[in-house]
Structures are given as C-alpha cells and as structure tokens.
Amino acid sequence: MDKELYRIKNNIINKVVIISAIFISPSFIASVLRTLEIGWQNLYYLHTIMTVISIWLLFFKKKLNLNTKIHFVAVIYLLVGIAGLYAFGFTGGFYLCLIPIILSGILLKKNVAIRYFSVVAVFYVLIAIGFVKDVISVSVDLNLYQIFPTTWIVHLFGFILIA
After folding, report:
1. Which pTM value belongs to this model?
2. What whole-number distance in Å separates Cα of residue 141 and Cα of residue 90?
3. DSSP, res 87
4. Where are the domains of the chain?
5. Tens digit of pLDDT for each residue in 59-90?
C-alpha cells in the first residue's frame, strides 16, 4: 500500500511540475513584458529565477525524490506569491501562496501544511503592517496597472494554475 500511495503522490506532483512549467513560462513572458508599461521591477529577477527552476524541475523530475519535488514547487509559488504581495499589494499574485499550503496538505503531512500556512501568515501580516504604516508602497500606478493587457494575462495564468 505504501508503494502504491507513493506512486500516486509522485504522479500527482509530476503533473503539477508539468502544468507549472507550461503555465509559468507564458506568465513569466507576459510579466516581463510589463517592463514596457511599468518599467523594470526587482520582482522580475525573482520571476526569472523561479521560471528557470520550474523548467529545470520539469527536466529533472524523474531524478528527484517526492519530497524534494513537492518542496521545490511549494517554494516557487510561495516566493512568487509573497513577492507579488510585497511589490503590488493585493493586485499582486498573492493568491499563489495557497498552492504550497494545499499541495503540502494533500501530498505531505498536515504539520507541513501548517508550517507553510504559518510562513504565509507571518509575511502577510508583516507586509500588511508595512503598507498600513507606509513603510512599503507600490511603485506603480495601480489604476494604470489594471488596464495593461499583460497584467490580465499574468493573473489569468495564475488562476488557471490554481484551478
């Protein structure tokens, strides 16, 4: 039974890795294309690194063990979600922070999901305090940001990933 459960979990995470690589790549391209509209954002460095890791994971998924793959995927979404919240407030892809919690809750133990939730909650509160205290501010005009097609494309791919 344990081998069968491991096989099922491995199959699920391998599909998540494939789907992530498929949808993260165009989302990354659309995100970086926003440079033409809002200028280069430091967040794009993180997007670049996370996209490269996602594609690397795609090619090496059979060589990595189950836990490593789960945590790689979880950390990719965690970092991009937190960075989006920090850079763009609620307009950023903070909803991506749900993926590590859900993924670890399904494929790992409950306490791992609780740890991911705790990390998200701590960053969420710290970023919220930063915005409320005016220590953190969004560097782009969010009214203009909403009318850029690339913004809508990036968020569409984010929602597709969660669905």
Report:
1. 0.86
2. 13
3. H
4. 2-162
5. 999 999 999 999 999 999 999 899 989 988 87
